[in-house]
């Protein structure tokens, strides 16, 4: 027997005008999942069950977005939806089509009075939600937004004068002062049983992708709290170490919420985790929130530079520019740290943050290609590809963002490699042609080649690959197999960094009508 105070699922207890307690039937509500594929710390889920109503867990595979998303992101999403389906006892309702049609149709079908969501903040998501809300209103159904993918909703943190922050450091200070809610408790939910179009198939991809879903996110986070947080401040910049949390993909899909991370960080610090490391990690989360805030106020930043830094004629185009872009995208620029990063991206759908900065700087300032081209390539491969983070980090590197690295800060791809991959392990891991080179030499293979032995680097590299991989390398008579295992030898640098840096700085000063003071 249910105790008197707990109405049956689908019923809510209210007092009548005469004071008598009675149960009313409530309609089902819909929880429309988007970038919040979890059940823990989910304020919109709490709101959806508030009246004890059964909840229809809905995911809409948007016809306009699903085919356009990269295979890596579709793979992650498909696996995350499968995990969410498990977590809801197989009740996840997947419907295909335009949410503007699908959501109102489902609301009518199940007799829902409310559709709950976590607020969307990206430009396209906001437009979609406005349209869906208007159509639902025609059916007398409310679209209720509770919470967002951020600890503090974009647009909330303002200066004393009520204007948005333009610069990260004061934003972070105000964000910390603003604070955030405690994680939402996980409610008891009665999932409604409604027809689904079925989970999407997991598309094939050549990349080795991380596990998807809320349980994987929580497991990864706990592992990082135990083994990665202490020392994070030092290790996070080292490309050769596994020194970061690898949570970006889980945050992107909302498999874990930033609020949970912030609460756990505070608890870890109270338990003795180093305050500096905690502060550094919190600061990285603040960057994520800052970028979402900037995009909230400047939706155009997803495709347009927020400020011009060089004259329009500074950008390369035509066949040579296309060839340079291809070399960059395939990891064949002849700059090992850049190439390692681009190959890590192709192989895993992820790239270390330090290397993202270096390859982005290389595209914009060494190859003189617009950041949007690089950002599109990243979005096509990153499993954590996220419009505010990707576009605004690109704008940061390109010097076109609100609070960006100055344009004249040009990353030196060799010096960065030597500093953040000091023994060359990262390069050797992703650029097998260079495995024969020891230590730092991998960062300057052309120099090594000219300076001293082995004078035939590529023969040496081939031998090393043979050592690492005992696959069939010989013909039946024992002679070397025809065709090299790596058909393309490692390329010579496609540009001279020192020269291209000067060109970039000249362009920068040309735009200002000023002479380069270093000239
Ligand atoms: C050119 C470029 C493109 C990028 N594109 C994306 C993207 O599409 N999606 C994305 O999530 N991140 C992007 N980043 C930011 C950053 O590289 C990744 O968030 C980070 O590498 C993810 O690894 P992690 O989770 O192990 O990071 P950790 O070091 O463990 O950091 C913890 C969390 O803090 C946040 N964070 C860390 N660094 C940044 C940063 N620079 N900006 C914003 N948030 C940050 C992330 O949510 C990250 O998961 C980009 C950076 C650059 C320079």
TrEMBL record:
The record marks 315, 371, 394 as: Electron transfer via tryptophanyl radical. This is Deoxyribodipyrimidine photo-lyase. Residues 27-151 form the Photolyase/cryptochrome alpha/beta domain. The lineage of its organism: Bacteria, Bacillati, Actinomycetota, Actinomycetes, Micrococcales. GO terms for molecular function: deoxyribodipyrimidine photo-lyase activity; DNA binding; FAD binding. The keyword Plastid does not apply. Residues 461-519 are annotated as: Disordered. InterPro entries: Crypto/Photolyase_FAD-like_sf, Crypto/Photolyase_N_sf, Cryptochr/Photolyase_FAD-bd, Cryptochrome/DNA_photolyase_1, DNA_photolyase_1_CS_C, DNA_photolyase_N, Rossmann-like_a/b/a_fold. GO terms for biological process: nucleobase-containing compound metabolic process; response to light stimulus; response to stress.
